[in-house]
């Protein structure tokens, strides 16, 4: 979906704020002492990278969604495993 310069500015601003929040999360979560919790930053980084790529391609990552590459999926699975101990495709409800 095509968008105007105003929307581009809004999306870029959101992307910058997300990056700032991720940075603060990294600093604050490092004091918790739980590596699994701190690994949420990895998930944030992949999401932000995907949003950035979409924006560089002239796509609205909010309205059009994200289009992950094979590398994105692998990075997400690695991050998910750091957080939850298993890959996303192995995450199931407890019995």
Descriptors:
mainly alpha; 95 residues; 64% helix; single chain
Quick overview of this protein structure:
With 95 residues, the chain is mainly alpha-helical. The chain has one domain. 64% of the residues lie in helices and 0% in strands.
Description of the structure:
This protein is mainly α. The chain has one domain. It contains four helices and no strands. Helix 1 (5-29) runs antiparallel to helix 3 and helix 3 runs antiparallel to helix 4 (70-84).
How many helices does DSSP assign? 4
Structural class: mainly alpha
What would the principal axes of the Cα set say about the shape?
A: flat
Query: What distance separates the N and C termini?
Result: 43 Å
| Succession of helices and strands | HHHH
Residue windows where pLDDT falls under 50 for at least 5 positions? none
Mean pLDDT: 94
Number of domains: 1
Give the number of DSSP strands.
Answer: 0
Roughly what fraction of the amino acids lie in strands?
under 5%
What is the C-alpha radius of gyration, as a whole number of Å?
A: 15 Å
* Largest beta-sheet characterization: none
Helix content range of the residues, please? 55-70%
Secondary structure blueprint with pairings:
Layout: H1 5-29, H2 35-38, H3 40-56, H4 70-84
Helix pairs in contact: 1-3, 3-4
